[in-house]
Amino acid sequence: MLKRAVWAYFLLLIFEGALRKWFLPGLATPLLIIRDPIALWVVYKLWNRGELPKSIYLTGMVVIGLLGIITALLFGHGSLPVAIFGARILMIHFPFMFAMGKIFDREDVIDLGKVFLWITIPMAILIAAQFYSPQSAWVNRGVGGDLEGAGFSGAMGYFRPPGTFSFTNGNSFFFNMATVFVVYFWLNPKNVNKIILIGASIGVLMSIPLSISRSLFFSMIITVFFAAVGSSLNKKYAPKIMFAGIIVFIGLLVLSQMEFFKTATAAFTDRFESANTNEGGLESVIADRYLGGMIGALKTSAEQDFFGYGIGMGTNVGSKLLTGGTVFLISEGEWGRVIGEQGAIMGLGIIFLRLGLSFKLLTHGFRRMLSGDLLPWLLLSFALLIIPQGQWAQPTSLGFSTLVGGLLIASLRGVEPEIDQPVFKREENLINIDYKMEGAG
Questions:
Q1: Of 92, 105, 117, 342, which is the most buried if we count CB atoms within 10 A?
Q2: What pLDDT, in 10s, does the model give residues 217-240?
């Protein structure tokens, strides 16, 4: 039953936006938090059984969440609904990441990855339809059936498509994670449908220009880099990555002959070049995309009110409840939002917990990579982008952060793959079922 709940969380993350835009637009507002009851129920069930993993990161987040509600009511915005909405990030979704890691094992992660491959194909077709359709078309309707469309400004008169998601960031997150599984299954093709794998690979390639998203492009490069590092240290993967490279080359060659792909590529190139010029070049773009004002947030943390303006105030929902409009009341950047809401002490506490968990997962994923298991390592290529500084105030970003974190923890459990010459003795599971290690378990 608990595994089914995790699957439900995953499927609702992918299709929640479709419900809010196309099928149940009248329920768009309550559907925004449709995954919350599932996550809360799973966390409660494990806690009630005494099986909720013990972790300094989990405990720290829950404590800060509770304190955040109190300080928001006493010293901040004073709205209980806003405080609860903000605290649910730390007290429901973050614990659900660990709960998922407890319920799933490595084989479950692989099964979910195969489902990702199947979904990638129709998702690529959908964003192609959105790319070439006017914003007034049904396929481009916004949340609540908004006829102005859900696309975001792109280039050459084309809009960035959102796929099944409420906003275009969900489309980028989806294809980033799809890239992880496509690369993994090319390196481990046993027991996977080759036709579906090829179709998903083509879908991933199509998504690059159709998304008109530099963030997606850079994140895919990072995943390929992680794959190259892992393959270079494990000789058995060298022929497979070469074969995968050939398939990608052939796929690009075929797609480049198609007019729809040429048009999308032209729009993507125009967006890439104009944005790089406006934002100060490639180095500036990369720094801003990943750092996202983090250094600035740290520099100004001492200037913030000790208890901040109140948890939840920096979210769109909090803004709507407090002012009646959707504006950034604190900061668009994640670290700036966290410190502005919670103040220097608790805000920095959240940041350090996120960084600490990321480092812990990196350490164990790296060890597994050296031993020949690339699944946790490839998941890290996405997790390290979204767990430390992903915009958790936005439900889709929060959902993908929770999902990849839970899958990463689960991938370090369960049945071990066959490994030729392990570098480390496998005293693991590294983050085992008892979660005895400090941090991720």
A1: 342
A2: 999 999 999 999 998 888 788 787
Kindly state whether residues 82 and 135 are assigned to the same domain. Answer: no
Q: For residue 5, which of 106, 113, 99 has the smallest C-alpha distance?
A: 99
CA distance 416 to 368: 10
- Statement: the pTM of the whole predicted model exceeds 0.85: yes
Alpha-carbon span 18 to 141, nearest angstrom: 10
Around Cβ 241, how many Cβ atoms within 10 Å? 19
165 dihedral zone (left: phi>0; alpha: psi -120 to 50; beta): beta
Do 201 and 241 lie in one domain? The reply is yes
Please give the Cα distance from 202 to 175 (Å, whole number): 12
**Domain end call among 265, 290, 315:** 290
Considering only the C-alpha atoms of the chain, give the largest distance between any 2 of them, rounded to a whole number of Å: 63
Residue 121, in any domain of the structure: yes
Give yes or no: residues 229 and 301 share one domain.
no
Establish if 108 belongs to a structural domain: no
Q: Is residue 135 part of a domain?
A: yes
